[in-house]
Amino acid sequence: MPPRTILVVDDQHGVCVSLAYFLELAGYRVLTAESGPSAVALAEKEVIDGAVIDVHMPVVNGFDTCLRLQSQAGVTRRELRVWFMTGACTSELERRGVELGALGVFRKPFDSPSFLEQLEHGFASARPEIQTVTEPIGSKGENDSTAW
Question: Alpha-carbon torsion 82, 28, 23, 19, what sign?
Fold first, then answer.
């Protein structure tokens, strides 16, 4: 079975590079986009199994990007797993994520093992409940190399 393809969408280049490296080490095929429009254009050319999307991006935010990606997936009759990431999580953001069918909201910075566990759970389950991952850097030790 070929590796699952995850699209990482974040307007911060460093986040895209870091997540891509980490996810590739975990066995995923990773594509990155630094804007919503770039993500949509990339998804027109590539088969995407899941997307991790930053909520707060300029021009087209993560919610609108999610809607466009889901619309594309619907046209091709593919299911797209979506998770959001944000440094400013609120109950309204979580509610909106649920409305859009997100499988989780990752709070930046987040714990790498928990992040991978949530992705694996999301791909394995038919429709899991939304998860909020709240373990920031330092929760397992200030110099823990598995956290961002």
Answer: negative
How far apart are alpha carbons 129 and 141 in whole angstroms?
Answer: 29
- The contacts of residue 99 (CB under 8 Å, 6+ apart) are none
- Within the chain, residue ranges assigned H as helices are 13-25, 36-45, 62-75, 91-99, 112-124
Q: What is the pLDDT of residue 126?
A: 59
Q: What tens digit of pLDDT does each residue of 30-62 get?
A: 999 999 999 999 999 999 999 999 999 999 999
Name 37's bridge partners.
none
pLDDT tens digits, 97-108: 889 989 988 888
**Residue 43, phi then psi, degrees to nearest 5:** -70, -20
Which amino acid belongs to residue 85?
Answer: M
Provide the 10 A C-beta neighbour count for residue 138: 12
pTM of the model: 0.82
Fold of 5-133: Rossmann fold (3.40.50)
